[in-house]
Amino acid sequence: MFDLIGKTLGPYRIVEQIGAGGMATVYRAYQPGMDRYVAVKILPPQLARDQNFVKRFQREARAVARLEHTHILPVYDYGEAEGVTYLVIRYIQAGTLKTRMLQGPIALDEVSRLIGQVGSALDYAHRMGVIHRDVKPSNILIDPQGDAYLTDFGLAHMLEASQELTATGVGVGTPAYMSPEQGQGVKVDHRSDLYSLGVILYEMVTGRVPFEAETPMAVVLKHITAELPLPRAINPSVPEAVERVILKALAKDPAHRFQTAGEMTQALAAAVRKAGEAPAPQPAAAPAWPAAAPEEVSLVTRVQQMWARPPGKAALLGVSLAAIVALGYLLSQLNGELVIVGPGATATSAPTQVAAAPTQVAAAPTRVPPDTAVPLPTRTPRPTQTTGPVATPVPTDNSAQSKQGEWLTMCANAADLCIVDRAGRSTALGLAEGYRLFPGFGFSPDGLRIAFTACPLAELRQNPNNEFCHDLFILHRPGSEVTPLVRSEKYPESDPSWSPDGDWIAFGGWALSVVRSDGSALTNLIADSAVGNVVANAWSPDSRSIAFVSGNFNFDLDWGFQNEVSIINRDGSGWRTVFSLPDPKPAREDWIVEIAWSPDGQSLAIRFEDGRAYLISADCQAGAVGCRLSDLAEIPDIPPDWLDTFHPQ
Fold this sequence. Notes:
alpha+beta, Phosphorylase Kinase, domain 1, Transferase(Phosphotransferase), domain 1, Neuraminidase, 3 domains, six-stranded antiparallel β-sheet, four-stranded antiparallel β-sheet, globular
């Protein structure tokens, strides 16, 4: 990073450097117009040349700037100048929680208070659709009054768009505090942040992080596979009730954790009250408090983008160490800190410290390895057709996930369906009759039935040129009994989705149709002449309405333009268009590719091909004030709890 001291970026005069770490260099700067000091976070200069990163940076910065919470360090501004990209945040004279932990044990009631403050910040951000992705002690500032402020929201997600750092996009985190699902490179939801908060709680009461190893990758693998060392085995003074909170917070399966930070902090507060005047925790095996992990260089995880439904409910999949070695990682020393750089990463990516603290405290020696930049294996599109433990990455586009955490995708031969369970075992379902399968599957809410589209091979042999053979089937589990549901006479069926009550299936193609799960009451709600083609659909939480994405068919592209969002009742009444793009033939990056309902049924979230996401009122009328693209609120992602919800009426 070149010297910026004394220079001006926009309205900000750089005064001094106050921090450096894995993703940014932090400066104190003076803003004359407001007569105040601010913290200016400078990102690596090579990122300004990456258009994917610049777009993501602008989206994330706007979303994060809208976060207003007592315990979130506010973002004032962002921009690009002098060839660098920067964020402007509130400047406070503060240390970090990492610094505080280096000073010695923290009383349980103080632990509960600080975790409660950070937890309230996380819950607020999660309700706003923002996932932190890099919760760790150095991202928690402690002011002179002892209050906590969570910082660097969105920074990890911004860097996921960088082609300069990785070849196909990156996910960012820190090994010592990383959730199992984040370590595998799958799409995460808010519960990944809760796991990281649980690691911090573990460290605050034991003096060490739960998993230590010789290399950062080994730490990641321990989060995924190793049993959690019991806190009371490290520090016997930890009350049993507090230990139970930690064990639940650090469950490897997200479904077994606390589902909100509020649940976790309330349980912790109750456990501390139950413990009474517990003594400050002391480590059992050492006369001095073990040092906290040194300031981090963030973990760079090489992943391919994935639009899975629902995001963040990923099964815990095995990771093949051989596959990791096969990627051929390079080791280099950057500014005295070990950095592991994977294919597509640049060895010049400057390590940066993300806390905007004015004073840096050198980390004491520790058994915990440095939190180091290291790439993880990339997911392959499909699991192999095998049974037993395999290193099968999460399926990508042509996949579905059940509420029970199983993934469904095509097998490697594309002639059978494969299930990938939480343990990473891939099992072919063994369809009795050969099928030519097509993308688009759907689990019933109970996970016992699977809707899929296919053409029987016997029919293809009789009529190999039948391009409309996209029939709808249901596979019943356990076993592999298949029931034909809808025969495609004219138009291909695609993208079946189950109603939350499990009674209906909606499917698209060149029309929008519904059918009961027993095959009765087949209804063509909208003909192809009215909407072109239907590319995505989502049921309302009460199973009464369907929101869908459609657009005029483009025969040159062999697909549609995907430029409208509509809602229709299950019985075919009440059809209305709630949103449409002004351009009837938008560019590919402006195609709408995903849609979801809010749990209360009042709003919709849409996502574009380039990753932008927006909120729309379900009461909108296309083109009306408040319902145009320029009027919509942009969000970083579709909130994780907006998918596959069921609220019976």
